[in-house]
């Protein structure tokens, strides 16, 4: 049939002469065509497709599924041939896709962007300021709204505010603000024209649809090959995993559990990304173990990092300074080098949560509950290696109060330690107050005369706990080497000992404090353990007093400092 152009006249064309709409193509079109649909479509000749002339053939504007049905059957298809502009082709595709349920959200997002592009071209002068890119307009609108929100709340954007895809804070843009009203109206009109069941606003589009278009092609292939379809959020969750090995494992995991919740996928994807650096550095076998652990138990990222440190430490031999001192650069959660009941005395001061960074997992805990949950297996391991009647000397400083002014308050956590130790068979045996100095530097700015005048006085945190716990068992016979004068002075429940100068932001025990504890609670030749060895003060003092010392420290950078202290 010769090519004729008619607005309404129906003509029959060979489906092979027709090509898809150049502005829109469904990725799942083949999945929506079955034998029943094909038979029904070819019988109904009253619903023609709409095409426009293009070169020696035609481009399809409306009726993609019907065209596929006739093409599969190999029969001519009824068509209406119309001269259509590119924008009209987009409009027909819009009606086609949004009046048909089986379409992919990625296809929908592409079509929305293309229609936005054509509609925004009606304001060429304003649109040009945004690079003739609809995404730039949307992101500028988002930045403008964010700025208005900030001003309305009367605060500045928090540090680490949510980032855009290009790494720019959500409230900033290199394009002019405010966005011209004509562009804003066009954007809002396009989104308002979506059918009620599919309606989203431009903010939702930026948050949930746009990320689908930024998924790399190889990731899309993996998603489709694993049959992870039907859920936009499931695709987003899996696709956002940056490490390819981890993403592949999550895909397999999702395939094995077809009823897995999107929330579970999202949580695992988030953890995998947070420990991306650890996964990249881990050997292949260890990497597989870590990924399996995340997929099965989805632990907190800090626990994963602790597991990484444990695996790394398993490959790092202990540093044996001499026959009386051993330092293991690994997590003290696993002290398998020590036998059951082999240690007479433990002296340590664990890192504080959310206070000072010690390059370890415990100090990065954000809450007390999280901190004590991480300490639980460590105390359990300490109880295992401690001999009957052995002592555990814990140094603990209560944290600085929270809040300001009338909202200020303080918390005490010593009871949490007592409960934790009791859980693992260690009972509180003695309580000592370590008075560090009269004006504890870290507390200076919070203790003010002005508060006292107003009957709101605060006190200096110039002291810390020394809690002595005892494991059940008969008292041992021997001589600690303590003198009568030392016994008389040291059994005072308040110890006035000047705090030692910190090293690399690490709190350091003064030698005198460690010496008192060792002489009070161990015999020469006993093993003294510090599971958080730090700079090695406990180890060096124990060696000087004729004890054998064992230390655990995850920060191998402290090795030179420990060795120097032991030698000196």
Question: What this model shows, in words?
Answer:
The structure is a single chain. By secondary structure, this protein is α/β, with parallel strands linked by helices. The chain folds into three domains: 10-103, Alpha-Beta Complex (Conserved hypothetical protein from pyrococcus furiosus pfu- 392566-001, ParB domain), CATH 3.90.1530; 215-299; 315-400 and 411-567, Vaccinia Virus protein VP39 (Rossmann fold). The protein is 43% helix and 14% strand. It is built from 22 helices and 14 strands. The strands form two sheets. It has a nine-stranded mixed β-sheet. The chain has a five-stranded mixed β-sheet with strand order 1-5-3-4-2. Helix 4 runs antiparallel to helix 7 and helix 10 (232-239) runs parallel beside helix 12. The relative contact order is 0.06. Mean pLDDT is 80; it is low at 149-171 and 439-443.
What is the helix content? 40-55%
- What portion of residues belong to β-strands? 5-15%
Q: Mind summarizing the main beta sheet?
A: 9 strands, mixed
Show unreliable segments: 149-171, 439-443
Text of the CATH class of the largest domain? Alpha Beta
Shape: elongated
CATH topology term of the largest domain: Rossmann fold
Helices and strands in order:
Blueprint: E1 10-13, E2 18-19, H1 35-43, E3 49-54, E4 57-62, H2 64-73, E5 77-81, H3 86-98, H4 105-120, H5 124-128, H6 134-153, H7 181-192, H8 202-213, H9 217-225, H10 232-239, H11 244-256, H12 262-274, H13 276-281, H14 284-297, H15 301-315, E6 319-322, E7 325-328, E8 343-348, H16 368-385, E9 386-396, H17 414-423, E10 426-435, H18 449-453, E11 463-471, H19 484-490, E12 494-496, H20 511-521, E13 527-530, H21 537-544, E14 548-552, H22 559-567
Parallel strand pairs: 2-4, 3-5, 7-14, 8-9, 8-13, 10-12, 13-14
Antiparallel strand pairs: 1-5, 3-4, 6-7, 9-11, 10-11
Helix pairs in contact: 1-2, 3-4, 4-7, 4-8, 8-10, 10-12, 11-12, 14-15, 16-17, 20-21, 21-22
